[in-house]
Design a protein that fits this description.
Oligomer: single chain
Mean pLDDT: 84
Helix content: over 70%
Radius of gyration: 27 Å
Structural class: mainly alpha
Number of strands: 2
Number of domains: 1
Largest sheet: 2 strands, antiparallel
Strand content: under 5%
Order of helices and strands: HHHHEHHHHHHHEHHHHHHHH
Length: 527
Protein backbone atom coordinates (compact mmCIF):
# COMPACT_ATOMS: atom_id res chain seq x y z
CA UNK A 1 0.00 0.00 0.00
CA UNK A 2 1.36 3.43 -0.93
CA UNK A 3 2.24 5.96 1.77
CA UNK A 4 -0.40 8.48 0.61
CA UNK A 5 -3.10 5.80 0.90
CA UNK A 6 -1.99 5.02 4.44
CA UNK A 7 -2.23 8.72 5.35
CA UNK A 8 -5.72 8.94 3.84
CA UNK A 9 -6.78 5.85 5.79
CA UNK A 10 -5.45 7.34 9.05
CA UNK A 11 -7.37 10.57 8.43
CA UNK A 12 -10.55 8.63 7.71
CA UNK A 13 -10.26 6.62 10.93
CA UNK A 14 -9.46 9.59 13.18
CA UNK A 15 -13.06 10.80 13.12
CA UNK A 16 -14.31 7.34 14.04
CA UNK A 17 -11.80 7.12 16.88
CA UNK A 18 -12.95 10.48 18.26
CA UNK A 19 -16.58 9.33 18.13
CA UNK A 20 -15.71 6.11 19.98
CA UNK A 21 -13.82 8.10 22.61
CA UNK A 22 -16.81 10.39 23.20
CA UNK A 23 -19.18 7.43 23.41
CA UNK A 24 -16.79 5.76 25.84
CA UNK A 25 -16.76 8.74 28.21
CA UNK A 26 -20.56 9.01 28.00
CA UNK A 27 -20.93 5.31 28.76
CA UNK A 28 -18.61 5.59 31.79
CA UNK A 29 -20.79 8.39 33.19
CA UNK A 30 -23.98 6.39 32.66
CA UNK A 31 -22.48 3.30 34.33
CA UNK A 32 -21.31 5.40 37.30
CA UNK A 33 -24.83 6.82 37.72
CA UNK A 34 -26.36 3.34 37.52
CA UNK A 35 -24.00 1.97 40.17
CA UNK A 36 -24.68 4.89 42.48
CA UNK A 37 -28.45 4.51 42.06
CA UNK A 38 -28.22 0.90 43.24
CA UNK A 39 -26.86 2.15 46.58
CA UNK A 40 -29.94 4.21 47.49
CA UNK A 41 -31.53 1.61 49.74
CA UNK A 42 -34.23 0.50 47.28
CA UNK A 43 -34.17 -3.27 46.83
CA UNK A 44 -35.77 -5.85 44.57
CA UNK A 45 -37.60 -4.92 41.39
CA UNK A 46 -38.05 -1.34 42.56
CA UNK A 47 -34.29 -0.99 42.92
CA UNK A 48 -33.78 -2.25 39.37
CA UNK A 49 -36.38 0.19 38.07
CA UNK A 50 -34.73 3.04 39.98
CA UNK A 51 -31.34 2.20 38.46
CA UNK A 52 -32.85 2.11 34.96
CA UNK A 53 -34.57 5.45 35.58
CA UNK A 54 -31.27 6.95 36.76
CA UNK A 55 -29.56 5.74 33.57
CA UNK A 56 -32.29 7.33 31.43
CA UNK A 57 -32.05 10.55 33.48
CA UNK A 58 -28.28 10.70 32.89
CA UNK A 59 -28.82 10.10 29.17
CA UNK A 60 -31.44 12.87 29.07
CA UNK A 61 -29.13 15.32 30.89
CA UNK A 62 -26.33 14.70 28.38
CA UNK A 63 -28.69 15.31 25.49
CA UNK A 64 -29.84 18.61 27.03
CA UNK A 65 -26.20 19.65 27.28
CA UNK A 66 -25.52 18.57 23.70
CA UNK A 67 -28.47 20.45 22.19
CA UNK A 68 -30.04 23.14 24.33
CA UNK A 69 -26.91 24.86 25.67
CA UNK A 70 -25.86 25.88 22.14
CA UNK A 71 -28.35 28.75 22.27
CA UNK A 72 -26.44 30.41 25.12
CA UNK A 73 -22.94 30.25 23.65
CA UNK A 74 -23.46 29.72 19.90
CA UNK A 75 -23.66 33.44 18.96
CA UNK A 76 -20.57 34.26 21.06
CA UNK A 77 -18.62 31.46 19.31
CA UNK A 78 -19.89 32.43 15.86
CA UNK A 79 -18.86 36.06 16.43
CA UNK A 80 -15.36 35.02 17.58
CA UNK A 81 -15.91 36.59 21.00
CA UNK A 82 -15.21 33.12 22.43
CA UNK A 83 -13.35 30.15 21.07
CA UNK A 84 -15.24 26.87 20.97
CA UNK A 85 -13.10 25.48 23.77
CA UNK A 86 -13.57 28.59 25.91
CA UNK A 87 -17.32 28.54 25.35
CA UNK A 88 -17.53 24.86 26.30
CA UNK A 89 -15.57 25.51 29.50
CA UNK A 90 -17.61 28.56 30.56
CA UNK A 91 -20.95 26.97 29.71
CA UNK A 92 -20.14 23.69 31.48
CA UNK A 93 -19.09 25.50 34.68
CA UNK A 94 -22.05 27.88 34.78
CA UNK A 95 -24.65 25.32 33.67
CA UNK A 96 -23.55 23.01 36.51
CA UNK A 97 -23.38 25.92 38.98
CA UNK A 98 -26.87 27.07 38.02
CA UNK A 99 -28.26 23.58 38.47
CA UNK A 100 -26.61 22.96 41.85
CA UNK A 101 -26.92 26.44 43.38
CA UNK A 102 -30.28 27.56 42.03
CA UNK A 103 -31.95 24.40 40.75
CA UNK A 104 -34.36 24.31 43.69
CA UNK A 105 -35.30 21.78 46.36
CA UNK A 106 -38.50 20.47 44.74
CA UNK A 107 -39.72 19.92 41.21
CA UNK A 108 -43.15 19.43 39.67
CA UNK A 109 -43.74 15.74 39.02
CA UNK A 110 -45.91 16.52 35.96
CA UNK A 111 -44.00 18.98 33.80
CA UNK A 112 -46.00 22.17 32.98
CA UNK A 113 -49.24 20.64 34.35
CA UNK A 114 -50.22 19.22 30.96
CA UNK A 115 -51.82 16.07 32.38
CA UNK A 116 -53.90 15.46 35.50
CA UNK A 117 -51.99 13.15 37.90
CA UNK A 118 -55.21 12.17 39.68
CA UNK A 119 -56.25 10.21 36.56
CA UNK A 120 -53.15 8.00 36.67
CA UNK A 121 -54.38 4.64 38.04
CA UNK A 122 -51.49 3.75 40.37
CA UNK A 123 -47.88 4.41 41.28
CA UNK A 124 -46.54 1.69 38.97
CA UNK A 125 -48.28 3.26 35.96
CA UNK A 126 -46.92 6.64 36.99
CA UNK A 127 -43.35 5.28 37.07
CA UNK A 128 -43.76 3.65 33.64
CA UNK A 129 -45.22 6.90 32.30
CA UNK A 130 -42.28 8.97 33.61
CA UNK A 131 -39.67 6.51 32.32
CA UNK A 132 -41.24 6.40 28.87
CA UNK A 133 -41.46 10.20 28.73
CA UNK A 134 -37.87 10.69 29.86
CA UNK A 135 -36.48 8.17 27.38
CA UNK A 136 -38.58 9.47 24.47
CA UNK A 137 -37.55 13.08 25.06
CA UNK A 138 -33.89 12.04 25.31
CA UNK A 139 -34.07 10.02 22.10
CA UNK A 140 -35.67 12.90 20.21
CA UNK A 141 -33.02 15.33 21.46
CA UNK A 142 -30.37 12.83 20.38
CA UNK A 143 -31.84 12.73 16.86
CA UNK A 144 -32.06 16.53 16.69
CA UNK A 145 -28.46 16.91 17.84
CA UNK A 146 -27.31 14.36 15.27
CA UNK A 147 -28.80 16.43 12.43
CA UNK A 148 -27.60 19.70 14.00
CA UNK A 149 -31.06 21.15 14.72
CA UNK A 150 -31.49 23.18 17.96
CA UNK A 151 -34.85 22.23 19.50
CA UNK A 152 -36.68 23.05 22.72
CA UNK A 153 -35.97 20.61 25.55
CA UNK A 154 -39.14 21.73 27.32
CA UNK A 155 -41.24 21.00 24.24
CA UNK A 156 -39.63 17.57 23.94
CA UNK A 157 -40.44 16.59 27.54
CA UNK A 158 -43.92 18.13 27.30
CA UNK A 159 -44.70 16.11 24.18
CA UNK A 160 -43.30 12.97 25.77
CA UNK A 161 -45.40 13.35 28.93
CA UNK A 162 -48.43 14.04 26.74
CA UNK A 163 -47.87 10.87 24.72
CA UNK A 164 -47.32 8.51 27.63
CA UNK A 165 -50.14 10.16 29.60
CA UNK A 166 -52.62 9.56 26.77
CA UNK A 167 -51.33 5.98 26.42
CA UNK A 168 -51.87 5.43 30.15
CA UNK A 169 -55.29 7.02 30.67
CA UNK A 170 -56.71 8.34 27.38
CA UNK A 171 -57.12 11.83 25.94
CA UNK A 172 -59.18 13.06 28.91
CA UNK A 173 -56.03 13.23 31.06
CA UNK A 174 -54.62 16.14 29.01
CA UNK A 175 -55.09 19.82 29.86
CA UNK A 176 -55.65 21.00 26.28
CA UNK A 177 -55.64 24.67 27.30
CA UNK A 178 -52.07 24.33 28.54
CA UNK A 179 -51.15 22.44 25.38
CA UNK A 180 -52.62 25.26 23.30
CA UNK A 181 -50.38 27.76 25.10
CA UNK A 182 -47.34 25.59 24.43
CA UNK A 183 -48.28 25.31 20.75
CA UNK A 184 -48.63 29.10 20.63
CA UNK A 185 -45.05 29.44 21.86
CA UNK A 186 -43.85 27.78 18.63
CA UNK A 187 -44.81 31.02 16.88
CA UNK A 188 -44.54 33.58 19.67
CA UNK A 189 -40.99 32.73 20.78
CA UNK A 190 -39.06 32.96 17.48
CA UNK A 191 -41.11 35.92 16.23
CA UNK A 192 -40.52 37.96 19.40
CA UNK A 193 -36.87 36.91 19.52
CA UNK A 194 -36.37 37.90 15.89
CA UNK A 195 -38.15 41.25 16.28
CA UNK A 196 -36.20 42.24 19.41
CA UNK A 197 -32.84 41.14 17.97
CA UNK A 198 -33.47 43.03 14.72
CA UNK A 199 -34.60 46.11 16.65
CA UNK A 200 -31.46 46.11 18.78
CA UNK A 201 -29.23 45.64 15.74
CA UNK A 202 -30.90 48.53 13.94
CA UNK A 203 -30.47 50.72 17.02
CA UNK A 204 -26.75 49.81 17.23
CA UNK A 205 -26.29 50.58 13.54
CA UNK A 206 -28.10 53.92 13.80
CA UNK A 207 -26.16 55.03 16.89
CA UNK A 208 -22.69 53.69 15.98
CA UNK A 209 -21.89 52.12 12.61
CA UNK A 210 -23.96 54.53 10.50
CA UNK A 211 -22.25 57.56 12.06
CA UNK A 212 -19.38 59.33 10.23
CA UNK A 213 -17.05 58.93 13.25
CA UNK A 214 -17.78 55.42 14.57
CA UNK A 215 -15.30 55.64 17.44
CA UNK A 216 -16.76 58.89 18.75
CA UNK A 217 -20.26 57.44 18.44
CA UNK A 218 -19.17 54.24 20.22
CA UNK A 219 -17.66 56.19 23.14
CA UNK A 220 -21.02 57.88 23.59
CA UNK A 221 -23.40 54.98 22.96
CA UNK A 222 -21.57 51.88 24.23
CA UNK A 223 -21.77 52.69 27.98
CA UNK A 224 -25.54 53.04 27.62
CA UNK A 225 -25.82 49.80 25.61
CA UNK A 226 -23.79 47.86 28.19
CA UNK A 227 -25.78 49.47 31.02
CA UNK A 228 -29.03 48.34 29.40
CA UNK A 229 -27.50 44.89 29.04
CA UNK A 230 -26.63 44.96 32.76
CA UNK A 231 -30.21 45.86 33.66
CA UNK A 232 -31.74 43.18 31.44
CA UNK A 233 -29.40 40.44 32.60
CA UNK A 234 -29.71 41.41 36.25
CA UNK A 235 -33.51 41.39 36.01
CA UNK A 236 -33.51 38.16 33.99
CA UNK A 237 -31.24 36.43 36.50
CA UNK A 238 -33.48 37.45 39.40
CA UNK A 239 -36.68 36.36 37.66
CA UNK A 240 -35.48 33.19 35.95
CA UNK A 241 -32.05 32.22 37.26
CA UNK A 242 -32.51 32.51 41.03
CA UNK A 243 -36.30 32.24 41.23
CA UNK A 244 -36.15 28.80 42.88
CA UNK A 245 -34.01 29.99 45.80
CA UNK A 246 -34.92 33.69 46.03
CA UNK A 247 -38.43 34.78 45.09
CA UNK A 248 -38.63 38.42 44.02
CA UNK A 249 -41.22 40.38 42.09
CA UNK A 250 -40.63 42.25 38.86
CA UNK A 251 -40.14 45.61 40.61
CA UNK A 252 -37.50 44.28 43.02
CA UNK A 253 -35.76 42.42 40.19
CA UNK A 254 -35.77 45.61 38.10
CA UNK A 255 -34.23 47.63 40.93
CA UNK A 256 -31.44 45.05 41.34
CA UNK A 257 -30.94 45.18 37.59
CA UNK A 258 -30.79 48.98 37.77
CA UNK A 259 -27.99 48.80 40.33
CA UNK A 260 -26.03 46.48 38.05
CA UNK A 261 -26.72 48.82 35.10
CA UNK A 262 -25.26 51.83 36.93
CA UNK A 263 -22.08 49.90 37.80
CA UNK A 264 -21.80 48.60 34.22
CA UNK A 265 -22.24 52.12 32.81
CA UNK A 266 -19.39 53.68 34.80
CA UNK A 267 -17.03 50.73 34.27
CA UNK A 268 -17.64 50.80 30.49
CA UNK A 269 -17.30 54.59 30.36
CA UNK A 270 -13.97 54.41 32.22
CA UNK A 271 -12.77 51.61 29.95
CA UNK A 272 -13.70 53.57 26.82
CA UNK A 273 -11.82 56.66 28.02
CA UNK A 274 -8.76 54.56 28.92
CA UNK A 275 -8.50 53.06 25.42
CA UNK A 276 -6.85 55.79 23.36
CA UNK A 277 -5.41 53.62 20.57
CA UNK A 278 -8.68 52.46 19.03
CA UNK A 279 -9.28 53.09 15.35
CA UNK A 280 -12.54 54.48 14.03
CA UNK A 281 -13.52 51.27 12.28
CA UNK A 282 -16.19 48.63 12.56
CA UNK A 283 -13.63 45.99 13.58
CA UNK A 284 -12.40 48.09 16.52
CA UNK A 285 -15.94 48.84 17.68
CA UNK A 286 -16.83 45.16 17.40
CA UNK A 287 -14.01 44.21 19.77
CA UNK A 288 -15.53 46.41 22.46
CA UNK A 289 -18.48 44.01 22.72
CA UNK A 290 -16.28 40.97 23.46
CA UNK A 291 -16.23 41.16 27.28
CA UNK A 292 -20.00 41.87 27.59
CA UNK A 293 -20.63 38.82 25.38
CA UNK A 294 -18.51 36.58 27.61
CA UNK A 295 -20.52 37.71 30.64
CA UNK A 296 -23.73 37.15 28.66
CA UNK A 297 -22.77 33.57 27.76
CA UNK A 298 -21.93 32.81 31.40
CA UNK A 299 -25.12 34.32 32.85
CA UNK A 300 -27.38 32.74 30.22
CA UNK A 301 -25.78 29.37 30.97
CA UNK A 302 -26.31 29.84 34.72
CA UNK A 303 -29.98 30.73 34.23
CA UNK A 304 -30.44 27.83 31.80
CA UNK A 305 -28.87 25.36 34.25
CA UNK A 306 -31.08 26.53 37.09
CA UNK A 307 -34.25 26.16 35.02
CA UNK A 308 -33.76 23.34 32.54
CA UNK A 309 -32.10 20.88 34.91
CA UNK A 310 -35.70 20.11 35.92
CA UNK A 311 -36.28 18.72 32.43
CA UNK A 312 -33.57 16.14 33.07
CA UNK A 313 -34.12 15.29 36.73
CA UNK A 314 -37.82 16.13 37.21
CA UNK A 315 -39.16 12.74 36.08
CA UNK A 316 -36.24 10.97 37.79
CA UNK A 317 -36.91 12.85 41.06
CA UNK A 318 -40.59 11.85 40.78
CA UNK A 319 -39.63 8.17 40.40
CA UNK A 320 -37.18 8.38 43.33
CA UNK A 321 -39.93 9.97 45.44
CA UNK A 322 -42.36 7.12 44.67
CA UNK A 323 -39.83 4.41 45.54
CA UNK A 324 -38.28 6.03 48.62
CA UNK A 325 -41.37 7.51 50.33
CA UNK A 326 -43.19 5.49 52.93
CA UNK A 327 -46.57 5.80 51.17
CA UNK A 328 -45.39 5.16 47.58
CA UNK A 329 -48.00 7.73 46.49
CA UNK A 330 -48.02 10.12 43.51
CA UNK A 331 -47.49 13.76 44.57
CA UNK A 332 -47.66 17.02 42.64
CA UNK A 333 -44.17 18.01 43.78
CA UNK A 334 -41.19 15.84 44.59
CA UNK A 335 -38.02 16.71 46.53
CA UNK A 336 -34.80 16.60 44.51
CA UNK A 337 -32.10 14.57 46.31
CA UNK A 338 -28.62 16.02 45.90
CA UNK A 339 -27.41 12.97 43.98
CA UNK A 340 -30.24 13.40 41.46
CA UNK A 341 -29.35 17.08 41.05
CA UNK A 342 -25.72 16.12 40.51
CA UNK A 343 -26.77 13.65 37.80
CA UNK A 344 -28.50 16.51 35.99
CA UNK A 345 -25.71 19.05 36.49
CA UNK A 346 -22.85 16.75 35.52
CA UNK A 347 -24.84 15.20 32.69
CA UNK A 348 -25.52 18.59 31.11
CA UNK A 349 -21.84 19.57 31.41
CA UNK A 350 -20.57 16.25 30.01
CA UNK A 351 -23.08 16.22 27.15
CA UNK A 352 -22.11 19.77 26.24
CA UNK A 353 -18.38 19.00 26.25
CA UNK A 354 -18.70 15.74 24.29
CA UNK A 355 -21.49 16.41 21.80
CA UNK A 356 -22.31 20.15 21.96
CA UNK A 357 -20.01 21.59 19.25
CA UNK A 358 -22.23 20.47 16.35
CA UNK A 359 -25.30 22.47 17.41
CA UNK A 360 -23.11 25.36 18.63
CA UNK A 361 -21.72 25.67 15.10
CA UNK A 362 -25.24 25.55 13.63
CA UNK A 363 -26.44 28.43 15.80
CA UNK A 364 -23.20 30.41 15.66
CA UNK A 365 -22.16 30.24 12.02
CA UNK A 366 -24.37 28.08 9.80
CA UNK A 367 -27.54 30.23 9.78
CA UNK A 368 -26.02 33.65 9.10
CA UNK A 369 -22.69 35.38 9.62
CA UNK A 370 -22.34 36.90 13.10
CA UNK A 371 -20.01 39.49 14.57
CA UNK A 372 -19.85 40.75 18.15
CA UNK A 373 -22.46 43.49 17.65
CA UNK A 374 -24.94 41.02 16.15
CA UNK A 375 -24.24 38.50 18.92
CA UNK A 376 -24.86 41.27 21.49
CA UNK A 377 -28.27 41.91 19.94
CA UNK A 378 -29.18 38.20 20.06
CA UNK A 379 -28.16 38.00 23.74
CA UNK A 380 -30.27 41.07 24.50
CA UNK A 381 -33.23 39.58 22.64
CA UNK A 382 -32.91 36.40 24.71
CA UNK A 383 -33.33 38.28 27.99
CA UNK A 384 -35.74 41.05 26.99
CA UNK A 385 -38.13 38.61 25.28
CA UNK A 386 -38.33 36.41 28.38
CA UNK A 387 -38.86 39.44 30.65
CA UNK A 388 -41.59 40.94 28.46
CA UNK A 389 -43.30 37.60 27.83
CA UNK A 390 -43.30 36.64 31.51
CA UNK A 391 -44.95 39.94 32.46
CA UNK A 392 -47.58 39.47 29.74
CA UNK A 393 -48.18 35.82 30.64
CA UNK A 394 -47.05 34.59 27.21
CA UNK A 395 -45.44 31.13 26.89
CA UNK A 396 -41.99 31.28 25.33
CA UNK A 397 -39.11 28.90 24.63
CA UNK A 398 -35.55 30.11 25.25
CA UNK A 399 -34.31 27.92 22.39
CA UNK A 400 -36.80 29.37 19.91
CA UNK A 401 -36.05 32.93 21.11
CA UNK A 402 -32.29 32.60 20.61
CA UNK A 403 -32.53 30.93 17.21
CA UNK A 404 -35.27 33.37 16.17
CA UNK A 405 -32.88 36.17 17.16
CA UNK A 406 -30.20 34.75 14.86
CA UNK A 407 -32.67 34.68 11.97
CA UNK A 408 -33.88 38.18 12.90
CA UNK A 409 -30.45 39.80 12.60
CA UNK A 410 -29.82 37.88 9.38
CA UNK A 411 -33.02 39.02 7.70
CA UNK A 412 -32.51 42.61 8.88
CA UNK A 413 -29.05 42.59 7.29
CA UNK A 414 -30.59 41.32 4.05
CA UNK A 415 -33.13 44.13 4.10
CA UNK A 416 -30.56 46.82 4.89
CA UNK A 417 -28.15 45.63 2.21
CA UNK A 418 -30.94 45.49 -0.33
CA UNK A 419 -32.04 48.98 0.68
CA UNK A 420 -28.48 50.32 0.42
CA UNK A 421 -28.05 48.69 -2.98
CA UNK A 422 -31.26 50.36 -4.11
CA UNK A 423 -29.85 53.72 -3.02
CA UNK A 424 -26.67 53.07 -5.02
CA UNK A 425 -28.77 52.15 -8.04
CA UNK A 426 -30.77 55.37 -7.62
CA UNK A 427 -27.55 57.39 -7.50
CA UNK A 428 -26.33 55.84 -10.75
CA UNK A 429 -29.69 56.21 -12.44
CA UNK A 430 -29.99 59.89 -11.56
CA UNK A 431 -26.60 60.90 -12.92
CA UNK A 432 -25.88 61.58 -16.59
CA UNK A 433 -24.92 58.37 -18.35
CA UNK A 434 -21.14 57.84 -18.51
CA UNK A 435 -20.34 60.65 -16.03
CA UNK A 436 -18.33 58.42 -13.67
CA UNK A 437 -16.40 61.35 -12.20
CA UNK A 438 -19.63 62.96 -10.98
CA UNK A 439 -20.82 59.64 -9.56
CA UNK A 440 -17.52 59.11 -7.69
CA UNK A 441 -17.61 62.64 -6.27
CA UNK A 442 -21.19 62.22 -5.11
CA UNK A 443 -20.41 58.79 -3.58
CA UNK A 444 -17.46 60.21 -1.65
CA UNK A 445 -19.67 62.84 0.00
CA UNK A 446 -22.51 60.32 0.42
CA UNK A 447 -20.33 57.76 2.23
CA UNK A 448 -18.97 60.33 4.69
CA UNK A 449 -22.35 61.86 5.47
CA UNK A 450 -24.60 61.16 8.43
CA UNK A 451 -27.93 59.35 8.00
CA UNK A 452 -29.81 62.64 7.80
CA UNK A 453 -27.34 64.08 5.30
CA UNK A 454 -27.55 60.98 3.11
CA UNK A 455 -31.33 61.23 2.99
CA UNK A 456 -31.15 64.91 2.06
CA UNK A 457 -28.57 64.25 -0.66
CA UNK A 458 -30.71 61.53 -2.23
CA UNK A 459 -33.80 63.73 -2.21
CA UNK A 460 -31.91 66.61 -3.81
CA UNK A 461 -30.46 64.27 -6.44
CA UNK A 462 -33.88 62.91 -7.37
CA UNK A 463 -35.36 66.41 -7.55
CA UNK A 464 -32.53 67.61 -9.79
CA UNK A 465 -32.87 64.53 -12.03
CA UNK A 466 -36.62 65.09 -12.41
CA UNK A 467 -36.00 68.67 -13.46
CA UNK A 468 -33.48 67.44 -16.03
CA UNK A 469 -35.97 64.86 -17.35
CA UNK A 470 -33.93 61.79 -16.26
CA UNK A 471 -30.60 62.35 -18.07
CA UNK A 472 -29.56 58.70 -17.80
CA UNK A 473 -32.52 57.67 -20.00
CA UNK A 474 -32.86 54.21 -18.40
CA UNK A 475 -35.90 52.14 -19.30
CA UNK A 476 -38.05 50.50 -16.63
CA UNK A 477 -36.56 47.06 -17.42
CA UNK A 478 -33.02 48.42 -17.12
CA UNK A 479 -33.84 49.91 -13.73
CA UNK A 480 -35.13 46.54 -12.46
CA UNK A 481 -32.02 44.77 -13.70
CA UNK A 482 -29.77 47.24 -11.88
CA UNK A 483 -31.63 46.57 -8.62
CA UNK A 484 -31.37 42.80 -9.03
CA UNK A 485 -27.59 43.03 -9.29
CA UNK A 486 -27.41 44.13 -5.65
CA UNK A 487 -29.75 41.52 -4.19
CA UNK A 488 -28.14 39.62 -1.29
CA UNK A 489 -29.15 36.43 0.55
CA UNK A 490 -27.51 36.41 3.98
CA UNK A 491 -29.67 33.77 5.71
CA UNK A 492 -29.45 30.15 4.67
CA UNK A 493 -32.97 29.12 3.69
CA UNK A 494 -32.08 25.43 4.02
CA UNK A 495 -31.35 25.96 7.72
CA UNK A 496 -34.59 27.89 8.15
CA UNK A 497 -36.60 25.01 6.70
CA UNK A 498 -34.70 22.30 8.59
CA UNK A 499 -34.90 23.99 11.99
CA UNK A 500 -38.54 25.02 11.45
CA UNK A 501 -39.48 21.45 10.58
CA UNK A 502 -37.68 20.14 13.68
CA UNK A 503 -39.58 22.63 15.88
CA UNK A 504 -42.96 21.71 14.43
CA UNK A 505 -42.54 17.96 14.85
CA UNK A 506 -40.82 18.00 18.28
CA UNK A 507 -44.02 17.63 20.34
CA UNK A 508 -45.81 15.07 18.10
CA UNK A 509 -42.61 13.07 17.50
CA UNK A 510 -41.71 12.82 21.19
CA UNK A 511 -45.38 12.11 22.07
CA UNK A 512 -45.65 9.23 19.59
CA UNK A 513 -42.31 7.80 20.69
CA UNK A 514 -43.28 8.07 24.35
CA UNK A 515 -46.64 6.32 23.82
CA UNK A 516 -44.91 3.42 22.08
CA UNK A 517 -42.31 3.14 24.85
CA UNK A 518 -45.03 3.22 27.52
CA UNK A 519 -46.89 0.31 25.93
CA UNK A 520 -43.58 -1.54 25.60
CA UNK A 521 -42.68 -1.01 29.28
CA UNK A 522 -46.22 -1.86 30.39
CA UNK A 523 -46.15 -5.05 28.31
CA UNK A 524 -42.91 -6.10 30.01
CA UNK A 525 -43.78 -5.06 33.57
CA UNK A 526 -47.53 -5.67 33.88
CA UNK A 527 -48.46 -9.03 35.45
Amino acid sequence: MELKHINELEKATKKGQAELLRLGFALLFIIAVMLYATQQGVSGLNGIMLAIAAVIGAYMAMNIGANDVANNVGPAVGSKALTLGGALFIAAIFEAAGAIIAGGDVVGTIRNGIIDPSQIPNADTFVWLMMAALLAAALWLNVATYVGAPVSTTHAIVGAVLGSGVAASGFGIVDWGTMGQIAASWVISPVLGGIFAAAFLYMVKRTITYQPDMLKAARKALPWLVAFMGWSFGTYLMLKGLNRVWKVGFLDASLIGLGIAIIAYFITRWRMQAQTSLASSKESVNRLFTIPLIFAAALLSFAHGSNDVANAVGPLAAIVDVYTSATHMITKEAPIPMWVMMVGALGIAIGLALFGPKVIRTVGSEITELDQMRAYCIAMAATITVIVASQMGLPVSSTHIAVGGVFGVGFLREYLKKNYSRMLADIKMHHPEGDQAAIDLFMGRFTQGSIEEKGKMLEELKTQARLQMDPAHFSKAERKNMKRVYKHELVKRSQLLRIGAAWVITVPASALMSAMLFFMIKGIMAP
